[in-house]
Design goal:
This protein is α+β, with helices and mostly antiparallel strands. The chain has ten helices and nine strands. The protein folds into two domains: 191 residues, Hypothetical Protein Pfu-838710-001 (Beta Barrel), CATH 2.40.320.10; 91 residues. It is 36% helix and 31% strand. An eight-stranded antiparallel β-barrel has the order 1-5-4-3-2-6-7-8, surrounded by four helices. The two termini are 23 Å apart.
Length: 312
């Protein structure tokens, strides 16, 4: 079983040509594939509750079975276990599930949603030690008669250092009109199918004096708050509801309170200004999500927190 580590950045289709012309890509050759995937689950979404996903992906180059499990998403970075192997045909069998030690019966699984997209692929020799796969995915997630379009850049660490992956992402984000993306194709599909993400809850993490916290405890607490912030933003991206905005607002306030005690203290003024701008206006926050400085902040926070242990 491999570990998939990637950073996802949202892209407007109007700017695809700009990505292709970026200095990291323009001298490299690319390949293009058309990919169709069926995502399976039980009627009560048992796999989703386990934070897993099962799919069969079909292409002209051949079909494959994939099981993803666990992991987390933090400031555009996703890290999860992935078991993938080529298959004959496009029918889910019990043998596939047994091979990945998944305790579920194939007869209980059915297609919940599908994805259909084109993928353009480059392999970036970022350093002598680090190779990064860059892809542009553009297509649709579909559940019955409901659809969601997507267009995104994915940067996957094929080998080498996580620091290099982040440096690559910072270059793209600095040079191009991109935004940090936490929503996966599967999250979109499950939302269309009626299985909403777990609603983020307001948690008053920072109530008293935090001067006694160690650096490790501070980072861990920041991670918890940032996770709530990001979940609320994803919820807003899909549903645009007032409750999620209130949760996000409280998370940003808590984050502002604790960041002054961290190595990211120089970001306090920006977050303080951000809070002032969005405290009463959901519309103001939605505009802010397209701001380059805001997206660079999300990536920087994710980078800072990426080395702490998995959050509870």
């Amino acid at each position: 079983m491999a570990k998939e580590i990637e950073i996802k950045l949202r892209l407007s289709p109007d700017h695809i040509a700009k990505v292709r012309a970026h200095p990291l890509l323009k001298e490299l050759s690319s390949t293009t594939r058309t990919l169709d995937s069926d995502y399976y689950d039980t009627e009560d979404f048992a796999l989703r509750r386990r934070k897993g996903a099962v799919r069969i992906r079909k292409s002209e180059q051949g079909n494959c079975f994939t099981h993803k499990s666990g992991g987390r998403v933090l400031g555009g970075l996703s890290s999860r276990k992935e078991y993938e192997f080529p298959i004959e045909g496009d029918t889910l069998t019990q043998g596939f599930l047994t091979r990945v030690d998944l305790n579920v019966k194939a007869v209980d699984l059915s297609v919940v949603f599908t994805t259909h997209f084109s993928r353009e692929i480059w392999l970036i020799p970022f350093t002598k030690e680090t190779q990064i796969e860059c892809v542009i995915d553009r297509g649709v997630v579909q559940c019955q008669d409901k659809k969601l379009d997507f267009c995104e850049v994915e940067l996957e660490l094929k080998k080498g250092k996580l620091d290099d992956l982040y440096q690559c992402a910072f270059q793209f984000l600095s040079d191009l009109p991109l935004e940090v993306e936490n929503l996966s194709k599967a999250a979109r599909g499950y939302w269309l199918a009626g299985k909403k993400m777990e609603s983020p809850q307001i948690k008053y993490f920072v109530l008293g004096d935090i001067g006694h916290l160690t650096e490790r405890d501070t980072r861990h607490l920041m991670g918890k708050i940032f996770s709530v912030w990001q979940k609320a933003q994803m919820d807003l991206q899909l549903e645009n509801n007032r409750k999620s905005f209130c949760v996000l607002r409280e998370a940003i306030l808590d984050f502002k309170r604790i960041i002054s005690k961290s190595e990211l203290a120089e970001k306090y003024q920006y977050i303080d200004k951000l809070w002032d701008q969005i405290v009463t206006s959901q519309h103001a926050f939605q505009k802010k999500t397209h701001d380059k400085q805001y997206n660079q902040l999300l990536l920087e926070i994710g980078y800072y927190l990426s080395t702490i242990p998995k959050l509870a």
